[in-house]
Amino acid sequence: MEIRPVRIKDIEGVRDLEISCVREYFAATLENRWEDLPQDWKDNLGASSRNHFKAYLDSGLSLVAEEDGEIVGFIFAQMLHHICDEDNLLWIENMGVHPYFRRNMIGYKLLRECVRLGREKGATVAHAMIQPDNAPSILLYKKLGFFMDRREVALLDLRDPALRI
Ligand SMILES: CC(C)(COP(=O)(O)OP(=O)(O)OC[C@H]1O[C@@H](n2cnc3c(N)ncnc32)[C@H](O)[C@@H]1OP(=O)(O)O)[C@@H](O)C(=O)NCCC(=O)NCCS
What we know:
Helix content is 31%, strand content 24%. The chain is an alpha+beta fold.
């Protein structure tokens, strides 16, 4: 198993894997069946989507795990600047490992290498957003030394036509 930077040629494999992971961890919360959700919404989901992939490719901080030519794991990250009092903050957007290959330390190696690269490129802190009920992910991040504080994210959808501003 090799951990290496994501490349353009990985797009199909990494897209399939990211979408299957997104479907998996949203399965419990999505009210609609996946098949019934709007196609343009699904097409824009995830860091591997058409609108976002290039930014994560160019960041030099996104990695895949490859086994026998197949993508079995991924992590998408980029550097954010002047945020949370930091000049350089490593933002981890998403990660996942193919169910068949889980509990083999692939997620751990992807995260560790991403953090190592981020620090090498000048990041002083790393952030990731994790669903509070995603125990495997929380435990993985904690194993590497991440901690969860009491902050919660306040969200506002600026595309909402009902927005009164
Ligand atoms: C979270 C995820 C990436 C972990 O990948 P993985 O390769 O199976 O994880 P690892 O084998 O590297 O596990 C490292 C550590 O994480 C924790 N961990 C991972 N999966 C766990 C699980 N199912 N239950 C409990 N602890 C778990 C453990 O502390 C583990 O160390 P240990 O094996 O010594 O106990 C994987 O479960 C996944 O892809 N989930 C679906 C997508 C997802 O939720 N992504 C995260 C979005 S924020």
